[in-house]
Amino acid sequence: MTEQIDETTPEDDLAGLSYETARAQLIEVVSQLESGGVPLDESLALWERGERLAQVCQRWLDGAQAKIDAARADDSHATEDTGR
Fold it and tell me: Is 13's pLDDT higher than 50?
């Protein structure tokens, strides 16, 4: 019997997270790290997860900013076209 190897990357488990879920998990990671009662190897793993969660949150925020910028650009073009 052969052991099955998990070929998923650490990012795969975060890919489908909403902003709110990623943020909540990031807050939990920070709390655990700030408590100071975590062994070094676990602290490093938590830190790495926190970094990935922060990247997920940043992607969501960047996407939201891009939508706002696009909406503002569309609005300014519409205002220019109507002469208002």
Answer: yes
